[in-house]
Amino acid sequence: MQNPWAGLTKPGGNEEAHEVLGEKRGNYEVAQAQSAEDDVRVYSGNRRFRPAVCAMADSLASAHVGRCREFDHSTAGSDHRTTGRFRRRTGRVPGRGDHRRGLGAGVQRKELRRMSCCAERRGSEPNLGVARETRIGRLFNGVFDPLDGSVSVNRGGGLLQQRAINLPGCHLKGEAVPAEATFVSLRNSPPLFGAGLIEAIPEATIVANASLNGGRPNRVFNPDTGTTELGRFGWKAQVATLHQFAGDAYLNELGITNPSFPHENLPKGEPIPSGCDTVADPEDDGSGVTAFTNFMRFLAPAPRRPVTVQVQQGEQVFSQIGCASCHVPTMTTGPNSVAALSNKPVNLFSDLLLHDIGTGDGIEQGEATGSEFRTAPLWGLSRRDRFMHDGGSNTIEKAILRHGGEAQNARDRFGGLSPADHDALLAFLDSL
Prior knowledge:
Number of strands: 15
Largest sheet: 3 strands, antiparallel
Helix content: 10-25%
Order of helices and strands: HHHHEEEEEEEEEHHHEEHHHEEEEHHH
Radius of gyration: 21 Å
Structural class: alpha+beta
């Protein structure tokens, strides 16, 4: 199988790439913080906000940095022109604030420092651990209500801000599930390795899958363009582009307003108290969001584990029982100004379309109904230890057995496999 990132250098061979992380190292280890307190510092005088890139990556579940060993083919770019997009930030970590930047009243992760990229390890390899967020909502007069004031009451919006600022002159508490919420959904944070390749797949390629397997694309509003576009990212394909994803994360995960998302979230739907937000909006001028977008765009896919005879047998079984109709093994990117993203195979095992497989959570996003989810990409599966949107399955087999709805026939065929084919299929999935 062709490696779509073959033209890119390993981190150990590209010192410039490491400079974006605020480090300059010639190996695969990048130790950003010496202690947990180094990851996020909020100062009462100027409210300085210093998340290291791992802290930002935690809220997005993105990259292997910090104390985490990087994937062999992770990279910040393919050439000097690409890495220069980061170096324009003078080596500054994407997402790192300074005394002129504000931290929102509510933040999503626990001090933003539990790194979902390296929460656990299998042997010497990184394991994509679990960092979960909570989505809420309800039906109000037959319409989905994210409780952000757009339909009825404002209770702070559909994403709980679980931590808040507690400084002299500003004492806030994290949000809890309000009484009005009838839908409460835990969401496993999705990894972002290979995200640039996903973004580079032509829309027509994705939409064409719908005629083959009955899935449907999500159409979502992109504030950067003011138009409705094809959704690609997130559990419900509720985000169209990586730039939109980065801007959304700056606001909703970190509380930093930016040109794409210029309005503060209101904690619990109440006005932000005086003294808790002293920085004019937008708190990021857009350059930080752009730098972080580029950082995500050039994260390489996770390399596969060894492909044995049993794994090859398992891949055949995967296709025979119908899994590959939705978990499409490979799509191809279109022409791109970046060589590493141009006309490359993307072995993500997803159609990027919405399906109802019986695991709905009631949350509507874009045109995705409460019963639908995007087909989860399976690349990197062997490096996770929790599965499905809520992280509620701790083995791959348990995740398969939760499939119903459109996937019921494939699930039933899985249940009828011979022991040899059963084990081969699991071996294949654990090779991804």
